[in-house]
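Figure 6 in text form: structure in, sequence out.
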């Protein structure tokens, strides 16, 4: 997936990205979160800005709810 660095990424982007990671690697939501954090944020919360990181966390929370329901 291509990232446009002009603005913050939305929650929906991260939901799609983490679902793709889960499907591609056959991993759990927690592992997908870790891989996404590593690949996109390089283990730094401020790598892509505060708003983007907040959207990432919201996406993780929403996916966790979907998986657990």
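Output sequence:
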């Amino acid at each position: 997936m291509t990232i446009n660095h002009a603005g913050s990424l939305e929650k929906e982007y991260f939901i799609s990205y983490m679902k793709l990671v889960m499907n591609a690697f056959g991993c759990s939501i927690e592992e997908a979160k870790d891989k996404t954090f590593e690949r996109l944020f390089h283990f730094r919360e401020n790598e892509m800005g505060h708003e983007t990181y907040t959207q990432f966390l919201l996406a993780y929370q929403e996916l966790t709810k979907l998986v657990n329901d």
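Caption detail: The mean pLDDT is 92.
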